[in-house]
Amino acid sequence: MASMPNIDTLHFSEEPNVDTVPGPKSRSLLDQQVEIDSAAVAYPKRIPIALEEAKGATIRDVDGNTFLDFFAGIGVLNVGHSNPYVLEGTREQLGKITHTIDFPTEARLDLIEKLREIAPGGLAGSSNVVFGGPSGSDAIEGSIKLAKHNTGRHGLLAFEGAYHGATSGALSLTAGKKYKKGYTPLLSDVVHAPYPTVPTEQERDQALKAVRQKFEDPYGGTEDPAGIWVEPIQGEGGVVVPPEGFLKGLRKIADDNDALLIVDEIQTGLGRTGEWFGSDHFDVTPDAITMAKSLGGSGLPIGAMVYHEKFDTWDAGGHIGTFRGNTPAMVGGLRAIEYIEAHDLLAHATDVGEYLRGRFREVSEVTDRIVDVRGRGLFIGVEFVDESGEPDANVVKEIQTECFENGVLVWSAGRYGNVLRIIPPLVLTKKQAEVGSDIVCEGIQSVLKTR
């Protein structure tokens, strides 16, 4: 077994090195992509770059420009790009067997045992794991089946601001209208309750009251939901951290109404927030959690759901998927967890995340265009408004471009696209955090000066 290299050795460099972007080779490949790739391609329209290779928290394009990655493939590369400890395991597994459906393998059972060990709250040691398709959307589809199968009901409750995926059931739970346009109708009897966007008791209590009414008001309008789907911290909705007691309130409502509480940990899981799962911050035991993204360790696709063993009522084939036996991804997931443990990356993510939020708060103190800096661990959102106090997506786009041109890759979020989303790999070094935050803060100040 390979040694686990220190996080300081994983990267191309501690600082970006950028000449002209996009460079000529990138331009050529971007032009070719426009000609032959799908019109659904989105990311290169905001960040015009053609990728060559990546290590740790750094990415290199085809022109040799090196960037600090503050995006991690939408939170996929928690232990960094091309982590040697993870890659050694996945390469070895590729030489043995790759596609195993759901026959037992050491890779499968070892990952299940580890997930049972680190699962949030009372799920630890009392849970089962099911693999389905290779994405987070597939994991959500499995959770919908679980809730329906165990309650006999078909109604679903999610939240405004939510993003749960793009397949039919997951898209039904997703709140964003732009993702649904042209694809409705979707699942019936799906309702969306307010997600508390201000961390106050009043906001929390109003949101919980709205959820309870959907279950207990005889004129609530729909069948009682089979389950409640919630992100412990909303991602696409703008890195929104709910008030204390919100998830506990949902737990009580679910219990009172024989419904399942299903927590979507697809983006918040496996150390992103400084705990193994976002649920851990709120001392709540879900009935099930969905996972994907960083679960494959090195970007290999895998989706899974951990659920309380009392809900394991399926017959054989009750939830299936051709690619539910991706053993290299399972090895990658186990090794990523081992790497996080060995290098205490939960504490590291907490410390570096606090540092980054502190840097952005310093900028917010000298401008009224930043109305909030929030998040947990290395899951950070900076919210912008225009001079009249309205959400300002354009300023975030300009900051994103300014950062890209100076060597840092960031992205956006929020219901109105006005939140700068910072989600670097957990292996981001303190030096990279300093250098990268300098560039981002200077980019913010530069853009705001011109507006």
Automatic annotation (TrEMBL):
PROSITE patterns in alphabetical order: AA_TRANSFER_CLASS_3 (PS00600)
Gene3D superfamilies to which the protein is assigned, alphabetical: Aspartate Aminotransferase, domain 1 (3.90.1150.10), Type I PLP-dependent aspartate aminotransferase-like (Major domain) (3.40.640.10)
UniProt GO molecular function: identical protein binding; pyridoxal phosphate binding; transaminase activity
Superkingdom, natural source: Archaea
Cofactor(s) needed: pyridoxal 5'-phosphate
Region (Disordered): 1-26
This protein's UniProt keywords: Aminotransferase, Plasmid, Pyridoxal phosphate, Transferase
CDD domains found in the cross-reference section: OAT_like
Family: Belongs to the class-III pyridoxal-phosphate-dependent aminotransferase family.
UniProt name for this protein: Aminotransferase class-III
